[in-house]
Amino acid sequence: MSVPKIQSPVKEVSSSTFELLTLDVPSTQSPNPSSLAFTPSPPSYSNDSFQWVQPMIDNKKRKFTPKVMAPSFDVVASLLGTTLTPSAKKAKTASRTMVSQLVKHERIETTVAKAKEVRRLAENMVQLGKKGTDSAKKFARGFLRGDDVIHKVFTEFAYRYKNRAGGYTRLLRTRIRQGDAAEMAYI
After folding, report:
1. Where in the chain are the domains?
2. Selection from 15, 61, 11 nearest residue 40 by Cα
3. Which parts of the chain are coiled coil (predicted)?
4. 160 near 168, Cβ under 8 Å?
5. Lowest pLDDT segment from 17-26, 62-71, 100-109, 178-187
6. Which comes out higher in pLDDT, residue 112 or 62?
7. What is the CA radius of gyration of the chain?
8. 103-124 residue pLDDT tens
9. pTM over 0.85
């Protein structure tokens, strides 16, 4: 049994986008408002932005107005498979771990991009160590991993860099990693 498609009038959504509403009506029955199934046309694309517009349904009991949803960049990027960065929680955890390892071993090898981020965070930790206040210790305890690392920041590093205003770390570019040709550096 074939189902004829009835097209409703065109409604203007924006200045450059139009939407057609189609109704699926069985051929043996008369059109009854309660038996009509509204199906929206596929998402409309415009040069300005991506928009999905839901149809307007007039009913005695309810009135639905059109809803415009613009998906976020993360949704579009994940659909296209172009998300290259980890989630914020994973990135923060990795940064905390790398700063803690840097304080513990005083040198780590990583990619240049990660080294630049770790350098920024490590210099902030040394600044906190130089302050030596209770609030600085509380913040460092929440960020760094391990009591030995926290103790090292507030005793050894605070004493070592007491006369230096900044520039506690150095970034030395070392090699190109063979597996993915990433530029590596010691920090």
Report:
1. 5-80, 88-186
2. 11
3. none
4. no
5. 17-26
6. 112
7. 30
8. 999 999 999 999 999 999 999 9
9. no
CATH superfamily assigned to domain 88-186: Ribosomal protein L17 (3.90.1030.10)
Query: By CB neighbour count within 10 A (0-12 exposed, 13-18 middle, 19+ buried), where does 182 fall?
Result: middle
Helix (H, G, I), strand (E, B) or coil at 100: helix
Q: Strands (DSSP E) along the chain, which ranges?
A: 5-7, 11-12, 18-19, 21-24, 37-40, 44-45, 50-53, 57-58, 63-64, 68-69, 109-111, 172-176, 183-186
Query: What number of other Cβ atoms are within 10 A of residue 21's Cβ?
Result: 19
Do the Cβ atoms of 14 and 46 come closer than 8 Å?
yes
First to last CA, the chain: 72
Residue carrying the six token digits 């923060």: 92
> Which is higher by pLDDT, 126 or 29?
126
User: Packing angle between helix 112-131 and helix 88-105, nearest 10 degrees?
Assistant: 70
